[in-house]
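Give me the 3D structure for Dioxygenase-like protein.
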Amino acid sequence: MASQPKTEVNAPPLLDLTIDNITPNAIRINSQSPNARLTYLMARLVTHLHDFARETRLSTDEWMAAITFLIGCGQISNDVRNEFILLSDVLGLSLLVDNINHPTPPNCTEGSVLGPFHTHDAPVLPNGSSMTADPEGEPMLALCTIKDSAGNPISGVKVDIWETDSSGHYDVQHEGRDEPSERCVMVSDEEGRFWFQGLKPVMYPIPNDGPVGKLLLMLKRHCWRPAHIHFMFDKEGWDHLITALYLRGDPYETSDAVFGVKKSLVVDLDRVDKETAEKYGVKEGICLLRHDFVLSTKEQTEKLRDELATEALQKLGLSLKLVDHLPVPDLD
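Predicted structure for Dioxygenase-like protein (332 residues):
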């Protein structure tokens, strides 16, 4: 075998490594990148991981079980299933990260978790279209508006919408899926309106046949999500909003397996009256969802995000500054 050329080692010397000094040594050798944010993230990650091991006196068997668990998450993931997002969801990390990055200014719609079943192949449909091919589900008409915090309509907003079918499964969970169903993309009109025909949402279990499901079982936690429908809003100059609406009175409204429910996102359904049925070309008496979404501008959200970040860092007593709205060590 040909010998490999030697490369110059330009790294800080490691000290005699012990339980007490491994953390500063790992941080030192990880601090050579010119990327200040990466250096800071790695320093905090190493600090908290090492403190966790020391605090819990982590055993070798437990460490290996965790490694095996993460390997299993990777092995079961594919193009339409992401076990790592599911893990982030059930640990509450997804909601935490979203709340940090997209704080809600007054009078604006709150965000919720993305979940692992959003896709990028949903068809773009005109307002009033049906996004479902499920004959077993209970039909629902949704009449929605998009406005700013001053009540002005916002036109031209791209709206991703997705939900399960009547069996509680997303289309990507069915073998042999050949086209999208129970999902679509719409664009708000000049009055900020969009409307569509879907299904009354149903409660469903998150995938529990993989490592995350086994973890929930060990923790004596249920795997159910309350009935809901997802929305994602995108338009240049406006904060990217990922949210969902949850049906009031669902058995899992107060114990969502992925911590997605917020009081402001819990809604009641009505019934379509004769006049509405004739106007929108649907049957009288089917479920009716009415909701007004309120978006914040990107500037509004970034300003609030910076204010909250500065306040949180001051409480922690950390000497940091914000660069591109993200904290890095202040070495000036």
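The chain has a mean pLDDT of 94. Let me know if you want a second pass.
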